[in-house]
Amino acid sequence: MSSDHFHDPIGAALESLRERFVADHDGEVASYIPELARVDPEPFGLALVSAGGGSYSAGDDRTRFTLQSISKPFTYALALCDHGLEAVLDRVGAEPSGEAYNAISLDEETGRPDNPMINAGAILTCSLVDGRDADTRFGRVLELLSAFAGRDLEVDESVFDSEATTGHRNRALAHLMFHAEALVGDVDDALEVYTRQCALSVDVRDVATMAATLSNAGTNPVTGDRVVAPEVAEQVMSVMATCGMYDASGEWLLRVGLPAKSGVGGGIVAVSPGRFGIATFSPRLDEQGNSVRGAAALRAMSTELGLHLLHRTHHLEEELAAGTVDDRAGALVVRLSGELEFTDAERVLRSLVSGPTPDRPVVLDLDDVRGCDEVASRVLRATATTLQRDGVEVGVVDSHDRNLLGEGFEDHVDMATACGSFDRSTPGA
Ligand code: GLN
Asked: β-pairing, 394-397 with 65-66?
């Protein structure tokens, strides 16, 4: 879509981010992997894939680069699928190390790496992937990461060879963990799987789709495939939020507030849960190994669009205001819509129960409600019960007959019946 921004406001927004930061030439391309030292430092691409499956991109959106550390959260997802959170946590921690990605962040006694986003933790994660040998294990990694991306990914063999022959530090980390019995199984197999996943060749659109899959609770919104369970997506995003940007993770969460992961290939992936996945690519890196332009663009985007994870705006106050007194029937109609959760239900509770007791029947109109989580259902039910106890009649309108408030409030009542019954039962109301 990058070619036609006139009809694509989201692509146009990405393009304007690109234009704002493209002149920044700070940073250096990674050079410790010889093949990466040769990449063109100039490309800058951005892509966004919504949780509904729309894709938008700008700039060098087809330029290939290697995933590098962006592979880590996705292989972590596979280890979680294979063993569950408890077993995985026994072997790899979930604490931000506050250290560089290639640091020797291992527990002194157990050799357990601090978290799965640093190299040590990611190599250990690879050793947890089920499979009889490196080929089978990597085959499973490749299959899962391809499902996240919605496309069959391939290894850039020259980048793989380049890192495999020079990656002495990673080898040392793996052997230290093996020595401490933190890594069990074949050390070389774990390193092979790790180095291969780092060398997977992608463009920003692939990576944005991978993130959109996390954002969409583990289902790829483009292909419709359920890639991982919602709780696995949640666990992966949690670790990205606290550890994804290495020793810049704390400040990243503070300023940008999105679960993210960077790679020394120049990519950054970020997730806005329930909204979209976004990816940037620009090879020059800052001292922490994070893409300079990519980080700047994501930071600007998050601040300007209010995307911080902890930023909550809620629309219910307006909706409650739309809960009107119906003159015909003399009832207070509270019209609710969307996905109800704690905040929505608590506002209904506060407005109906904390103040003066309503002097007329209350109708909770749930016709436009799409869903209601367990907490919201309980709070709404308690609200209705309290009102009844105080002598207020309560009707629930739900022409979809979903019984959202549970027993006693399950009657299928349409608005006319609800209001009509109040007409009869509360004369003069
Ligand atoms: N393959 C790289 C390494 O192990 C990945 C590091 C990164 O992207 N931060 O050093």
From this structure: unpaired
Kindly give the distance from the C-alpha atom of residue 322 to the centroid of ligand 1, in angstroms, as a whole number. Answer: 53
Does residue 361 have its Cβ closer than 6 Å to ligand 1? no
**Of 194, 262, 379, 392, which residue is the catalytic one?**
194
Fold of 324-419: Transcription Regulator spoIIAA (3.30.750)
**How many other C-beta atoms are found inside a 10 Å radius of the C-beta of residue 420?**
14
72 is catalytic: yes
Report pLDDT digits (tens) over 215-244. Answer: 999 999 999 999 999 999 999 999 999 999
Count CB-CB contacts under 10 A for residue 138. 22
Query: CATH assignment of 9-305?
Result: 3.40.710.10
Measured N-to-C along each axis, helices 187-198 and 134-149 cross at an angle, to the nearest 10 degrees, of 30
- What separation in Å is there between the alpha carbon of 411 and the centre of ligand 1? 59
Handedness of CA 155, 159, 164, 168 (dihedral sign): negative
Cβ partners under 8 Å of residue 20, min gap 6: 297, 300
